[in-house]
Design brief:
Keywords: Signal. This protein has helices spanning 2-15, 24-44, 60-81. With 85 residues, it is an all-alpha fold. It has one domain (21-81).
Length: 85
Amino acid sequence: MLKKSAIALVVLGLASTHKVTAGPLAYGICQTGCNAIVVACYAAAGAVFGTVTAGIGTMPAILACNVALGTCMASCVAAGCAPTP
């Protein structure tokens, strides 16, 4: 009986799924663009992205790069939620 219930739940789950129209590809492209920008920002500040921790003594330019990255990544949510054809 448990096996039949599990099969019924799987069939019901598959039947209730809808076509995804959000933009996961656009979201990934947006995040890739954000990362490319932050790498350039770090390079302009004389650092390498991924090697600096945001502790005491971190250069203000690096902190600004981190803030810009966070803002950019947050704006990517709109790209991920926007319907795509």
